[in-house]
What does this fold into?
Amino acid sequence: MLYQSYNKLNQRILKDLEKTNNRTGKPFKDMFNKYPGKLLSIDLDAKTIKGNKKGYKTGILYLAPANTLGFYNLCPNAVIAQCEKACLYTAGRGRFSSVELSRIRKTLYWIDHRERFLKQLYNEIERESIKAAKAGYKFVVRLNGTSDIRWENYFYKEMVSLNKKYGVVFYDYTKIANRKIPNNKVYDLTFSYSGVQSLHYKKQIDKALQAGMRLATVFRDKSKFPKQFLGREVVPGDETDLRFLDPVNSVVALYAKGQAINDYTGFVID
It folds into this structure.
């Protein structure tokens, strides 16, 4: 087995993998004996595609979020923010889609072969940025499509290099308010707000407000977006995913979609 951490996967995932194997007739373990051919997803959803009209091509890295694997948590504040149930990524449904299998494999790749992972990531971003420029676009990257990794601790020098050479801008949503980014023109962060009644998470919100971070907030009713929230101007956030273009100190209003529509933990604001 190429990935040593495969044997650490929790029993629920292993059972679901087996069910996937029985459903498809394909030996799922084969995919865990090779490296992913590609890490980034380019303009795969309608929201990022909208960014094309503003001159941007978007690449997103999707991994298995939170404690999906059962032994490694990629979203350290997911529990106190109570966002796991509303997460677009779901597991434990009795089987996995090819997309979910791919994200699990990429996560094991990150855990077990990090140096190779980061080298591949750099080369891929470099290649896609050159390709985007030839087509008349600027290339931007979200490394935490379904995770909340402190990339500044692993990839910041590479971010600076790619920004200087090709103008690549990195941006992410995060639930960790005390992240230290030397230059937000290279790596821009938007704090993901949640109204859950959690003292620990309220401390994160206070830190984000004190630091002047932009807040992304999910509202249940699109027609009832307030003009102000927490004393800040509210700006629409569903036109594109290009958060680094939104004003600092603003609240970016997103409307609930998918499973979030029925979420009443406090993550979605009524």
